[in-house]
Amino acid sequence: MQVRAEQLPALLQRGLKPLYLVYGDEPLLAQEAGDLIRARARAAGYDERKVFNVSGAHFDWSGLIGAAQEMSLFASRQLIEIRIPSGKPGKEGSEALQRYVEHLSDDVLTLVQCPRLDGQQTKSAWFSALDAAGVAVRVEPVARQALPAWITQRLAQQQQRVKEGDEGQRTLAFFADCVEGNLLAAHQEIQKLALLYPAGELDFEMVEAAVLNVARYDVFKLGEAVLAGRVSRALRMLDGLRAEGEAPVLVHWTLAEDIRALKRVHDAMHEGKPMPLALREARVWGLREKLFERALPLLSPLTLDELVRAASVCDGLVKGLKHPDWPADAWDGLRALVLMLLQPLAPPSGAPRRALALHG
After folding, report:
1. Coil, helix or strand at residue 325
2. Domains in the chain and their CATH numbers?
3. Fewest beta carbons within 10 Å, which of 36, 54, 257, 359?
4. 152 exposed, middle or buried (CB, 10 Å; 0-12, 13-18, 19+)?
């Protein structure tokens, strides 16, 4: 059975399964899911706990299987945790896990923890065996657009809330911008508000005074913000990546890949191919597919040619080459490239056109 992390509390209320697999790259939510399972296990009498960390190719899988089968001298029931930090148990581990679930005991509850697993891993024999034997809990990051609701829910758990109306929305937007991409820090900042202020209503000034800017940005999310025409978000992310010490070469590569893909899809459509086929041939799918569908009608052939040339110039900038018409600093050049791409993609009210000039 596969469930999302937010479905786990209700599922646990209906009783324990013999095995739980928790996987995902959001440390806070994965930890909380594991803690819920451990707490429920303790309440059900699983008093002894054994932890196995699968690291490297020399892990003793036979020891794990033996531990699950031996009777405990100290407790009638035991919780066995199997941590696989790589998410890849290997051939021997895959076979061992499949054997393991064939001999599950009512006196043993198993918790397996893995990082995010890709499509190939979730179709593997070992994953299918674990899923069939119990519950696979998928832990997903909280997207930026979902952060205000997530913050509201967490504040409610400590009897706090923001003001109603526009001020409350502004407060939540400010909070979300400060903690984006860093859910563990977001949790800590929410706890800080409980320590600083009593239960009840929080205004913008109270939150602004207390919450630190601990946001972390994903370079690949920058391209999504640009393609969506979200000017302020894209520029904030670019500044954040610079402050975090991200390599400008990687930022440029991400932007240039999108520009080249836009050009390829546009040219394919000009040759008569339907957009879905052109996107598939350019290896554009998922969220990027929807963003491309939005962006392509807004980009003329001339604009795309200019963007390709600009990306080529910017490639030299991030590698130390100068250009007389571009900023000398690589990050300033990246900003100029972002603004050029945003100019046709931003909504009319998204930013003054004057601000979206080459030199920003």
Report:
1. coil
2. 2-138 (3.40.50.300), 144-210 (1.10.8.60), 219-356 (1.20.272.10)
3. 359
4. middle
